[in-house]
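Entry 12.
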Amino acid sequence: MPHIRPVSDLRNNFAEISRIVHETAEPVFLTKNGYGNMVVMSIDAYERKLFESDIYIKLKEAELEAKTTDKRISHKQVFSDLRASLANKINDKDV
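Predicted 3D structure (tokens):
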């Protein structure tokens, strides 16, 4: 069930709203004059949502590419490319 609070609670009950967003990892929806106005969430929850949406977008792009091309890459090639990319990043940091 979503947490819905009046926007005035952000000022009057900040500690409680902070506790809710951190303990539940869910957003709190704030209303003004009975209408939705903003959403408050923890930084961890926000970053997790960004990560999930980024993965979703990349999966949709991959799905579209799979439908429009016959090119396929083996898992061995994917992991080989990832290892090479990680090695390059590690070497770049050492410099």
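Annotation: The domain at 3-41 is CATH 3.40.1620.10 (YefM-like fold). The first strand starts at residue 3 and ends at 6.
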